[in-house]
Design goal:
PDCD5-like_sf, Helicase, Ruva Protein, domain 3, PDCD5-like, DNA-binding, DNA_bind_arc, DNA-binding protein A6E15_01035
């Protein structure tokens, strides 16, 4: 540096700008890696479901996910855990899927209103 105050300020601003750009680039790479891992996990989940569910059972599960997303995710996790533990013999058909949905269905509360 030549020592002039304007040049020093200019160099300092350039350095700050480079640091900001580097930080931004690192953040984007971190998000991209996380997103890629999430997509890979989603693909593995779909492959396991495709392997262990019949077409009708998959349609029923997709219908449940459309109406109740959290419950659908819970059912998917249950099917995947059953498949990984080896407790599924053959494929889950529509009837078995209905039975599984009934077992996992949250208890519905009934309200009895009595008037006096």
């Amino acid at each position: 540096m030549s020592g002039s105050p304007d040049e020093e300020k200019l160099e300092e601003l350039r350095q700050k700008k480079m640091e900001q750009l580097q930080d931004r680039a690192e953040a984007q790479q971190g998000e991209g890696g996380q997103e890629a891992a999430q997509q890979q996990a989603e693909a593995q989940k779909k492959a396991v479901l495709r392997q262990h569910l019949t077409d009708d059972a998959r349609k029923r599960l997709n219908t449940v996910k459309m109406s109740k997303p959290q419950f659908g995710e819970q059912v998917e996790r249950q099917v995947i855990s059953l498949a990984r533990s080896g407790r599924i013999q053959g494929k889950i058909d529509d009837d078995k899927m209905k039975q599984l949905l009934k077992e996992l269905k949250p208890d519905s509360q009934s309200f009895d209103i009595q008037r006096r």
